[in-house]
C-alpha cells in the first residue's frame, strides 16, 4: 500500500534534483591573473621563434605581366593576349632574376595571379568531380559544367573532358629557369596534395590507354591540346592525374593567390643544396591572358621551413597578443591589489558595523 | 432537447461522456502538427529557404542543406509534442475512467464515466463527483435533498442544497427505478452555471417543471448525503462545466516575445546584408566585363534578383534554425526539473509539481503580480475551532496535543466538570455550542455532522470533543448527550442567519423548562444588543482583537432567558405575522427577530481557524521581499477575506485598510479619490516610495463592478497599485479575470494567477502564468493551469528558484544561440568581399548545415539546463536576487545588440586572423598550397572551438555535462571532419572535402592558429568579465563570492546598501528597507481609514432552496435513515 501511495514521488537522482556536482569558477582578477601571464609567457617566445623561422625563408617574386615578346620585339605579350585572334600565336619572354643570396634546401617555383577570382561561385561549381575521378559521363550528366560541358569536335557533339570553367581556364604559361645556358631542373610532380592525386583525380578506364579512354571526349574550348597531352613523358602525370592540372583544379581562397608550378630537382644535379646565388633567367611561354580583366601574373621562387612559406603575420600576432596579455595581466594585478585592500577595509567595516549593532 | 430515460430501446445519440483535452489524435496529428509548426514565421522562413534552394543555379549550398536540418528539427518537435500530448491523454483517461454506478437492466453496475450516456440513471455516493450534469431525482435525505460542494465551480466554501421535485423524491430503490419511465425536456447545452429550465414527464403523467434547484453539475461533489439518484442530461463536453472551460489559450512568454522580435531584427539584418551583397555583386560585375574565365555572370535585373536570393540562402542561418527546437527541448527538460523537484512534492496527497506547459518556464522568473485565490489556495478549506474566550478568560492558547482535536484546554475541561462560578459560564457556552446551530447529526461510529456552514460544523464538533455530543435532531428537538446523559432541548424558533443580520439565534426550551434565546454572531452586532448588566465586555473585546490579529474567525456567543409570557406574546403576534406575511416577508421576519434579540448576556467568543496551508505566511513574506505584489481575489465574504489577509501576514496591524464597499459608481469614485488623496498625503509626509506603502485595499465584488468600469479603471488601478496589499472579495470568476486583465494591460508587468477551483480558471487563463493547486479532488483549475503545485508554499521555490534559474538559463541559451550563428555566418559576408560577391561559401555546405544541429548543438543545452548563478538555498534565502530576472535586465534589446556587436567583432577576427596567417598560401613545408576550402576548414574549426569556449565562459557552473558539451562538441566536429574527408571514396558525396582533414591537420599553420585564435578572440570577453566583477559587481556576484568565503551575505548586502545610492543600492535598500524602525513608529500613528479590524466571519448558505429553519425541521435523526436498497 505504501508503494502505491507514493507512486508519484519524483526520482531522487542528482540530475533530476539538479544537484550534480558542479564547479563554479569565479572569474575574478585573482583567478584570471595566472591565465594572462601564462599566455603571455608562452606566446611571446613562440612568436619570436615563428618570426625568426619566417625570416629565414628566401622568396623572390617577379611580376611578368607586361614582359615583352621575344618573337615580336616591342610588343608586350599581355597586349597580344588581349586579342582573341592572336591567342594561339606564340609569345615568349625572358625574365632576368638575380639571387643575392643562395636559396638553400628545397626550392619551389610558384606562379601567382592577382585579380583572378578563382573563388567565384559560378567558377567554383563549374566542374564535375565524378568525371575527374574517372567515370565516363555523358554531357547531360555533367550539367554542372555548363556551358563548358559539350563542344563540337570532329563534327560530332561531344562531352568536354575535363569539363567546366575551372578546367577550361587552366593556367598554361610555362617557365624554364636557367643559369647561363644550363637549365635548372624543376620537377612538375609532388606539387599536388597526395590525397588529390590518389583519390580525387583518376583517369577513366581503360587506364592503360589514355588515348582510348579520352577518345570520345572533346578538349576544353580554350585548350590547344587535349587532356592526354598534359604530360606526354610521364603517364602517371598525364590526363586528369597531371599535378599541374590538379593544383589548378583546387580553387584558391582569394583573387590574389599563388599555386605551385614545380620544385627544384635536387637529386643528382648540381643543385642538391638548392639554388646558389647569381644571375638566372626565366624563359616564359606567355599564354595565359590576364590583361583583359586587369589581372597580374607573378613568378615566385621560395624556400620553405617547417611551418611553410614566408609568414610573418603569425609570429607578429603571437608576439602582439602575448604582449597584450602581459599588460592585461599587469592591469589585473593592480586591480587585484586594489581589491584586496578594499576587501580588508570592507571586512573591518563589516565587523565594525556588527559591533555597533551589538551595542545598540 | 428531449431525453428519454430508462428506455433502453430508444435510440438517443448525444455526445459521449468523455472529455479530451489533448491536442491531437492519431489521424489529426500530422496535419495539425504541421499546421501548428508552419504557423510560426520562423519555420515558414526556413520552408521558404528550402523552396528557394530548389531553384537551379542560385543556391550556394546545394538543394538539401536546409531541408535536412529542418526535418530533423521538426522531428524533435514532433517527438516532444507526442510526449506532451500523451501525458494529457493519460490525465484525461484518469478522469474518464472514474467509476460511477449506473442503472442498467434493473440493477446498478459500476461503469467508467465514459460509458455514462444521456438518459442514464446514476447513483452517486457521498464524497464523489458527479460524472455529468444530472437531474436530481431522489436522495438518501428527506424530500430528495442533498448537499453539494461547489468550491470547484464557484469557490464558495459553504455547501449548497439541491432538492429533487416531490414527484420523484420517493424513489428509493432499484425496484422503484424499474417502474420509472419518462422523458425530460430541457434546453440545449449551454454555459450558464446558474440557470436551467426543463420539464419532466413521469410515466405518462403530466409535465412537471424542473429548475436550477434540481440540477447537479459536473465538477460539483456530493457531500454529507449518502447517495442520490440522478438522470444524466448533459455529458462530456456538453456539460456546463466543460462549456465554461475555454481551451487554454496559447500563452507566449515575455522572453519568447523578445526572441521573436530579435528574430525579426535578424531577418531584417539578413535582408540588408543580402541586398548590400547583391549590390556589391552588381558593382563587381560592372567593374570589368572581360573576365573570360567566367561564363555567364548573370547581369541585368533578373540577375540581380537571383543574386539576392542567393545571398538570402547564403546568410539564412544568421537566424539560428535550431533555436526554436533547442528552446523547446530545453524548456521541456526544465519542466521535468520542475516536475521532479522533491521540495515541491507534497507527500500527504502524493502530488508532485507539474508543468503542464513548458512555454512559460522563464516567465516564472519575471512575475511581478500574483493574484491568489483564497479558499483551497491560501487555506486548506478546513475550519477548526481553535480557541475561545468565555467569561473573560481565554482558553486554548496552547497547542492541542490530541490528534484530530484542535481545541483542548485542560482548564476548560476542568471548569466544565467542577462547580466554580466560572464553570457555569463554561457549561452554558458549551451547551450553546451544541444547541445553537442548524447542523444535522449523522451516526457513523462517532457522530459526524452535516451542515452548509463549515463554521457551525467546527463548533459542534468541538463541543462533541468536549463531551457535549449533539446526537439527535428531530423536527422539534435537539438532544445533547452531556456527560453520559441525554438532555433534550425543544427548538422553538430558529432566527435565521443572513449576512446583513450577521447573526443567528435559536430559541429553545431547556430541559429545566426555561426558555432561552441563544444568539451568536458578529461582535459589533452582538455588543449592540447586550444588556446593560452584561459582564466581560471589556475583556472579551480585548480577546476579540487578539483573535482578529491572528486572523481567526470570531463569533460572539450571547444568550438571554426569556420570560414565558413575553416569548409567547412575541411568538404569537410579531413572529406569526411576519412569518405569514405575503409581501416583504424577509424584511418583516428580520424586524421580528430584532424585536426579541435584545438584552443579551455575553458568554464569550469562539475563534475558528480557517486553516491556512502550511508555510503560507512565510511564503508571502518571501514573495513580498522579492518585490512581488500579492492580490487576493476570493469569492468569499469580506470578513473571511480580511481574516485570511491577516492570518497570512499579507496585512498586518501596522497597515491601514482602505475599504471600498459602495453600491454606486459615483460613491465608489468618490471613495477611491479620497483614499488616493489620503495615501498621497501619508506618502509625501513619509517621503516613501509607493512600494513601502502601509495601506491595504479591500474591495468587494459589487463595488468592483463599478471600479472596473471604463471610467474608473484608471483611478482604481492607481489606488490598487499604491497599496501594499489588495484583497478583493465576493468577486465572480469573470471579475477575477477582469482584474488580471486590467493589471496585465496597464502595468506592463508579468502576472501570475494561482487558484484551485473552477472559478479560478478564467483568471488562470487570463494571467501570463496560471498556477493551479492540485492534489485536491477538483482538477479543473489544475487542468487549465500552466503549472500545478500541491501547496501555495511551493510557489516560493517555483518562482524564486525555478523561475529565476530558468530565466537566466534560457536567456543565456538564446543569446548564445544567436551569438554562435552570427559568429559563423557573418564570416560568409566578410568572404564575399573577396570573391566578387558571388555568394561562394567558405565552408563545405554540409558542415554549415550541421553546425547548428551537431557541432554547436550541445553548449546551448548546458547553458539552458545546468547554468546556475546561485544555489537554490541561496536563492530562497535572498529573494532579492529575483529582481534580476524580474526586471528583464539580462535579456532585452540592448543586451541583444551588444551581443550582436560582440559576435560581429568575433567573426571578423575569426576570418581575418586565419586569412592573414595564410597570406603566403604555402601551408606546408613541402611547399604545397591550400585552397578556399582549406582556409574554410581552418576558420570553421577555430569558430567551433571559440564558440564552445565562449559557452564555457558564459557558464557560471560547470557540471560534467558542461565539459562534455564544450569539449565534446569540438571532438564531434573533429571526428566528423575526419570521416567526411574520406567519404567521397565510398559515396558520391563531399567531393570537395576529400582529403581536407588529412591536409588541414598536417599543416603547422593550422595548429598555430588553433592555439592563437580562440584565446585572442575571447580575450576581451574574459577581461571584461573580470573588470565587470571588479568595478560593477552585481548582487549575484557578491552573494556568490561571499558564499564561497562563508560570510553571511545578508550583512554585506545591508552594508553595501548604505554606501551609495546607485541603482544597485536602491535595489539593496528595498531588500532590507523594512527594517527601518523610524517608519514603523510613525506608521502606527496613522489614522486607519476605516477600522475593519474585527475577526468576525461566518459562512452559511443564504437564500438557498431550503431555508435553514425549514431544513432542520425536516430531519428526524432518531429514526433510521433511508437507504437505497
From TrEMBL, chain A:
Biological process, per Gene Ontology: phospholipid translocation
Q: How does it sit in the membrane?
A: Multi-pass membrane protein
Q: Which keywords does this Swiss-Prot/TrEMBL entry list?
A: Membrane, Transmembrane, Transmembrane helix
Q: Which InterPro entries match?
A: CDC50/LEM3_fam
- Transmembrane stretches, start-end: 32-52, 313-335
Answer whether the UniProt record assigns the keyword RNA-binding to this protein. no
User: Which compartments is it annotated to reside in?
Assistant: Membrane
Q: Which family does it belong to?
A: Belongs to the CDC50/LEM3 family.
Indicate what this protein is called per its UniProt record.
Cell cycle control protein
The scientific name of the source species is Ciona intestinalis
UniProt lineage: Eukaryota, Metazoa, Chordata, Tunicata, Ascidiacea
UniProtKB/TrEMBL annotation, chain B:
Q: Where does Mg(2+) bind?
A: 373, 375, 756, 760
Species whose genome carries this gene:
Ciona intestinalis (Transparent sea squirt)
Please report the stretch or stretches of sequence annotated as the P-type ATPase C-terminal domain.
782-1033
Where in this chain does the record put each P-type ATPase A domain?
Answer: 96-158
* UniProt family annotation: Belongs to the cation transport ATPase (P-type) (TC 3.A.3) family. Type IV subfamily.
> Which Gene Ontology cellular component terms are annotated?
plasma membrane; trans-Golgi network
What EC number(s) are associated with this protein in UniProt?
Answer: 7.6.2.1
Report biased composition (Polar residues) as residue ranges: 1106-1125
Question: Catalytic site residues?
Answer: 373
**UniProt xrefs under InterPro entries:** ATPase_P-typ_cyto_dom_N (IPR023299), ATPase_P-typ_P_site (IPR018303), ATPase_P-typ_TM_dom_sf (IPR023298), ATPase_P-typ_transduc_dom_A_sf (IPR008250), ATPase_P-type_domA (IPR059000), HAD-like_sf (IPR036412), HAD_sf (IPR023214), P-type_ATPase_IV (IPR006539)
Q: What is this protein called?
A: Phospholipid-transporting ATPase
Reactions catalysed, semicolon-separated, are: a 1,2-diacyl-sn-glycero-3-phospho-L-serine(out) + ATP + H2O = a 1,2-diacyl-sn-glycero-3-phospho-L-serine(in) + ADP + phosphate + H(+); ATP + H2O + phospholipidSide 1 = ADP + phosphate + phospholipidSide 2
Q: Which GO terms describe its biological process?
A: phospholipid translocation
Q: What class of enzyme is it?
A: translocase
Which residues lie within the region annotated Disordered? Answer: 1101-1125
Q: Where does ATP bind?
A: 373-375, 456, 497, 520, 553, 634-636, 730, 736, 759-760
Indicate the segments forming the P-type ATPase N-terminal domain, all copies. 3-67
Q: Which UniProt keywords apply?
A: ATP-binding, Cell membrane, Magnesium, Membrane, Metal-binding, Nucleotide-binding, Translocase, Transmembrane, Transmembrane helix
Q: Subcellular localization, per the record?
A: Cell membrane; Membrane
Cofactor(s) recorded in Swiss-Prot or TrEMBL: Mg(2+)
What SUPFAM superfamilies does this protein's entry cite?
Calcium ATPase, transduction domain A (SSF81653), Calcium ATPase, transmembrane domain M (SSF81665), HAD-like (SSF56784), Metal cation-transporting ATPase, ATP-binding domain N (SSF81660)
List all membrane-crossing ranges. Answer: 41-58, 64-83, 263-284, 304-327, 822-842, 848-866, 895-913, 933-952, 964-984, 1004-1023
Topology relative to the lipid bilayer, per the entry, is:
Multi-pass membrane protein
Q: Give GO MF terms, alphabetically.
A: ATP binding; ATP hydrolysis activity; ATPase-coupled intramembrane lipid transporter activity; magnesium ion binding; phosphatidylserine floppase activity
Instruction: Tell me the superkingdom of the source.
Output: Eukaryota
Amino acid at each position: 500500500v505504501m508503494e502505491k501511495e507514493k507512486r508519484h514521488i519524483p526520482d531522487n537522482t542528482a540530475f533530476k534534483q539538479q544537484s550534480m556536482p558542479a564547479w563554479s569558477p569565479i572569474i575574478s582578477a585573482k583567478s584570471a591573473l595566472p591565465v594572462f601571464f601564462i599566455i603571455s609567457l608562452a606566446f611571446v617566445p613562440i612568436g619570436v621563434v615563428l618570426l625568426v623561422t619566417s625570416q629565414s625563408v628566401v622568396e623572390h617574386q617577379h611580376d611578368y605581366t607586361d614582359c615583352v615578346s621575344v618573337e615580336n620585339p616591342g610588343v608586350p605579350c599581355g597586349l597580344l593576349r588581349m586579342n582573341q585572334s592572336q591567342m594561339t600565336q606564340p609569345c615568349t619572354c625572358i625574365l632576368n632574376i638575380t639571387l643575392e643570396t643562395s636559396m638553400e634546401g628545397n626550392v619551389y617555383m610558384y606562379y601567382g595571379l592577382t585579380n583572378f577570382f578563382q573563388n567565384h561561385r559560378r567558377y567554383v561549381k563549374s566542374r564535375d568531380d565524378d568525371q575527374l575521378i574517372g567515370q565516363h559521363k555523358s554531357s547531360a550528366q555533367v550539367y554542372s559544367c555548363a556551358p563548358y560541358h559539350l563542344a563540337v569536335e570532329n563534327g560530332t557533339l561531344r562531352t568536354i573532358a575535363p569539363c567546366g570553367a575551372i578546367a577550361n581556364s587552366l593556367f598554361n604559361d610555362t617557365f624554364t629557369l636557367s643559369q647561363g645556358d644550363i637549365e635548372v631542373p624543376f620537377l612538375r610532380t609532388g606539387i599536388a596534395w597526395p590525397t588529390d592525386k590518389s583519390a580525387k583525380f583518376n583517369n577513366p578506364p581503360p587506364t592503360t590507354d589514355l588515348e582510348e579512354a579520352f577518345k570520345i571526349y572533346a578538349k576544353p574550348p580554350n585548350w590547344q591540346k587535349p587532356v592526354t597531352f598534359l604530360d606526354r613523358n610521364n603517364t602517371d602525370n598525364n590526363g586528369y592525374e597531371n599535378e599541374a592540372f590538379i593544383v589548378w583544379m583546387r580553387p584558391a581562397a582569394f583573387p590574389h593567390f599563388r599555386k605551385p608550378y614545380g620544385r627544384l630537382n635536387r637529386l643528382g644535379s648540381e643543385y642538391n643544396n638548392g639554388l646558389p646565388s647569381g644571375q638566372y633567367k626565366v624563359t616564359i611561354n606567355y599564354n595565359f591572358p590576364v590583361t583583359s580583366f586587369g589581372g597580374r601574373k607573378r613568378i615566385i621562387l621560395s624556400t620553405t621551413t617547417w611551418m611553410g612559406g614566408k609568414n610573418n603575420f603569425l609570429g607578429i600576432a603571437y608576439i602582439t597578443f602575448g604582449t597584450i596579455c602581459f599588460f592585461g595581466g599587469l592591469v589585473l594585478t593592480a586591480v587585484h591589489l586594489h581589491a584586496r585592500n578594499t576587501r580588508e577595509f570592507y571586512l573591518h567595516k563589516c565587523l565594525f558595523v556588527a559591533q555597533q549593532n551589538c551595542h545598540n | 432537447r428531449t431525453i428519454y430515460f430508462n428506455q433502453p430501446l430508444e435510440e438517443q445519440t448525444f455526445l459521449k461522456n468523455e472529455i479530451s483535452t489533448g491536442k491531437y489524435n492519431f489521424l489529426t496529428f500530422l496535419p495539425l502538427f504541421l499546421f501548428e509548426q508552419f504557423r510560426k514565421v520562423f519555420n515558414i522562413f526556413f520552408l521558404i529557404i528550402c523552396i528557394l534552394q530548389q531553384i537551379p543555379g542560385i543556391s550556394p549550398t546545394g538543394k538539401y542543406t536546409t531541408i535536412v536540418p529542418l526535418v530533423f528539427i521538426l522531428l524533435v518537435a514532433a517527438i516532444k509534442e507526442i510526449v506532451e500530448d500523451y501525458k494529457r491523454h493519460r490525465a484525461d483517461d484518469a478522469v474518464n475512467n472514474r467509476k460511477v454506478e449506473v442503472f442498467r437492466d434493473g440493477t446498478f453496475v459500476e461503469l467508467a464515466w465514459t460509458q455514462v450516456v444521456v438518459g442514464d440513471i446514476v447513483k452517486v455516493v457521498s464524497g464523489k463527483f458527479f460524472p455529468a450534469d444530472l437531474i436530481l431525482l431522489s436522495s438518501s435525505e428527506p424530500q430528495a435533498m442533498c448537499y453539494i460542494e461547489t468550491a470547484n465551480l464557484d469557490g464558495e466554501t459553504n455547501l449548497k442544497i439541491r432538492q429533487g421535485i416531490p414527484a420523484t423524491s420517493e424513489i428509493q430503490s432499484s425496484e422503484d427505478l424499474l417502474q420509472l419511465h419518462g422523458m425530460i425536456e430541457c434546453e440545449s447545452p449551454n454555459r450558464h452555471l446558474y440557470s436551467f429550465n426543463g420539464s419532466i414527464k413521469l410515466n405518462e403523467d403530466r409535465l412537471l417543471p424542473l429548475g436550477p434547484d434540481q440540477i447537479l453539475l459536473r465538477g460539483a461533489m456530493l457531500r454529507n448525503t449518502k447517495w442520490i439518484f440522478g438522470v444524466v442530461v448533459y455529458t462530456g463536453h456538453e456539460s456546463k462545466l466543460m462549456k465554461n472551460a475555454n481551451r487554454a489559450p496559447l500563452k507566449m512568454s515575455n522572453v519568447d516575445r523578445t526572441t521573436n522580435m530579435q528574430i525579426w531584427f535578424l531577418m531584417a539584418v539578413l535582408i540588408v546584408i543580402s541586398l548590400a551583397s547583391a549590390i556589391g555583386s552588381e558593382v563587381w560585375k560592372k567593374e570589368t566585363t572581360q573576365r573570360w574565365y567566367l561564363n555567364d555572370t548573370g547581369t541585368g535585373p533578373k540577375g540581380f534578383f537571383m543574386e539576392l536570393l542567393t545571398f538570402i540562402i547564403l546568410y539564412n542561418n544568421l537566424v539560428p534554425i535550431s533555436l526554436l527546437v533547442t528552446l523547446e527541448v530545453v524548456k521541456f527538460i526544465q519542466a521535468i526539473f520542475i516536475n521532479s523537484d522533491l521540495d515541491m512534492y507534497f507527500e500527504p496527497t502524493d502530488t508532485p509539481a507539474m508543468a503542464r506547459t513548458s512555454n512559460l518556464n522563464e516567465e516564472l522568473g519575471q512575475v511581478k503580480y500574483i493574484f491568489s485565490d483564497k479558499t483551497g489556495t491560501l487555506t486548506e478549506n478546513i475550519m477548526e475551532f481553535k480557541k475561545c474566550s468565555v467569561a473573560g478568560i481565554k482558553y486554548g492558547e496552547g497547542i492541542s496535543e490530541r490528534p484530530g482535536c484542535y481545541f483542548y484546554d485542560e482548564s476548560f475541561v476542568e471548569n466544565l466538570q467542577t462547580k466554580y462560578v466560572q464553570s457555569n459560564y463554561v457549561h452554558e457556552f458549551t451547551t450553546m455550542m451544541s444547541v445553537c446551530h442548524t447542523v444535522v447529526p449523522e451516526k457513523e461510529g462517532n457522530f459526524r455532522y452535516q451542515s452548509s456552514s463549515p463554521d457551525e460544523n467546527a463548533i459542534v464538533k468541538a463541543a462533541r470533543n468536549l463531551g457535549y455530543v449533539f446526537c439527535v435532531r428531530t423536527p422539534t428537538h435537539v438532544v445533547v448527550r452531556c456527560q453520559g446523559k441525554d438532555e433534550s432541548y425543544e427548538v422553538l424558533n430558529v432566527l435565521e442567519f443572513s449576512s446583513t443580520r450577521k447573526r443567528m439565534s435559536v430559541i429553545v426550551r431547556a430541559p429545566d423548562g426555561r426558555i432561552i434565546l441563544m444568539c451568536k454572531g458578529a461582535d459589533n452586532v452582538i455588543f449592540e444588543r447586550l444588556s446593560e448588566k452584561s459582564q466581560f465586555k471589556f475583556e472579551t473585546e480585548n480577546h476579540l482583537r487578539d483573535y482578529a490579529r491572528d486572523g481567526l474567525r470570531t463569533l460572539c456567543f450571547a444568550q438571554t432567558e426569556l420570560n414565558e409570557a413575553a416569548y409567547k406574546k412575541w411568538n404569537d403576534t410579531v413572529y406569526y405575522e411576519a412569518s405569514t406575511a405575503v409581501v416583504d416577508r424577509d424584511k418583516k421576519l428580520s424586524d421580528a427577530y430584532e424585536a426579541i434579540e435584545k438584552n443579551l448576556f455575553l458568554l464569550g467568543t469562539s475563534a475558528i481557524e480557517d486553516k491556512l496551508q502550511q508555510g503560507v505566511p512565510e511564503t508571502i513574506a518571501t514573495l513580498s521581499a522579492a518585490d512581488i505584489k500579492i492580490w487576493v481575489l476570493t469569492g468569499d465574504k469580506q470578513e473571511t477575506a480580511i481574516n485570511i489577509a491577516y492570518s497570512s501576514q499579507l496585512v498586518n496591524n501596522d497597515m491601514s485598510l482602505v475599504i471600498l464597499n459602495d453600491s454606486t459608481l459615483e460613491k465608489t469614485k468618490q471613495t477611491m479619490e479620497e483614499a488616493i488623496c489620503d495615501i498621497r498625503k501619508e506618502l509625501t509626509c513619509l517621503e516613501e516610495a509607493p512600494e513601502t506603502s502601509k495601506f491595504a485595499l479591500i474591495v468587494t465584488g459589487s463595488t468592483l463592478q463599478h471600479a472596473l468600469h471604463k471610467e474608473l479603471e484608471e483611478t482604481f488601478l492607481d489606488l490598487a497599485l499604491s497599496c501594499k496589499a489588495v484583497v478583493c472579495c465576493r468577486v465572480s470568476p469573470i471579475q477575477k479575470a477582469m482584474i488580471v486583465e486590467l493589471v496585465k494591460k496597464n502595468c506592463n508587468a508579468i502576472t501570475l494567477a494561482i487558484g484551485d477551483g473552477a472559478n479560478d480558471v478564467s483568471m488562470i487563463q487570463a494571467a501570463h502564468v496560471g498556477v493551479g493547486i492540485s492534489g485536491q479532488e477538483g482538477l479543473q483549475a489544475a487542468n487549465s493551469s500552466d503549472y500545478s503545485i500541491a501547496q501555495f508554499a511551493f510557489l516560493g521555490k517555483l518562482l524564486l528558484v525555478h523561475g529565476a534559474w530558468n530565466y537566466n538559463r534560457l536567456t543565456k541559451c538564446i543569446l548564445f544561440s544567436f551569438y554562435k550563428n552570427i559568429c559563423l555566418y557573418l564570416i560568409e559576408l566578410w568572404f564575399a568581399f573577396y570573391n566578387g560577391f558571388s555568394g561562394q561559401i567558405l565552408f563545405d555546405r554540409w558542415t554549415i548545415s550541421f553546425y547548428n544541429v551537431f557541432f554547436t548543438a550541445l553548449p546551448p543545452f548546458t547553458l539552458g539546463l545546468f547554468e546556475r548563478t546561485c544555489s537554490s538555498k541561496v536563492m530562497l534565502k535572498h529573494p532579492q536576487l529575483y529582481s534580476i530576472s524580474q526586471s528583464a535586465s539580462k535579456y532585452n534589446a540592448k543586451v541583444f545588440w551588444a551581443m550582436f556587436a560582440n559576435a560581429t567583432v568575433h567573426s571578423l577576427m575569426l576570418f581575418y586572423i586565419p586569412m592573414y596567417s595564410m597570406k603566403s598560401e604555402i601551408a606546408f613545408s613541402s611547399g604545397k598550397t591550400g585552397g578556399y576550402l582549406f582556409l574554410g576548414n581552418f576558420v570553421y574549426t577555430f569558430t567551433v572551438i571559440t564558440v564552445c569556449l565562449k559557452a564555457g565562459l558564459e557558464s557560471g557552473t560547470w557540471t560534467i555535462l558542461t565539459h562534455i558539451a564544450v569539449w565534446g562538441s569540438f571532438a564531434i566536429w573533429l571526428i566528423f571532419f575526419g570521416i567526411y574527408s574520406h567519404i567521397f571514396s565510398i559515396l558520391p558525396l563531399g567531393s570537395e572535402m576529400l582529403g581536407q582533414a588529412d591536409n588541414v591537420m598536417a599543416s603547422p599553420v593550422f595548429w598555430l592558429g588553433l592555439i592563437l585564435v580562440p584565446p585572442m578572440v575571447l580575450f576581451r570577453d574574459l577581461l571584461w568579465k573580470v573588470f565587470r566583477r571588479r568595478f560593477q559587481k552585481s548582487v549575484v556576484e557578491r552573494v556568490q563570492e561571499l558564499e564561497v568565503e562563508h560570510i553571511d551575505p545578508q550583512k554585506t548586502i545591508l552594508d553595501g546598501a548604505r554606501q551609495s545610492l546607485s541603482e544597485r543600492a536602491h535595489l539593496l535598500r528595498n531588500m532590507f528597507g523594512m527594517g527601518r524602525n523610524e517608519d514603523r513608529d510613525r506608521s502606527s500613528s496613522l489614522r486607519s481609514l476605516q477600522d475593519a479590524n474585527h475577526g468576525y466571519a461566518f459562512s452559511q448558505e443564504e437564500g438557498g432552496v431550503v431555508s435553514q429553519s425549514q431544513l432542520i425541521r425536516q430531519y428526524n435523526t432518531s429514526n433510521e435513515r433511508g437507504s437505497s436498497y
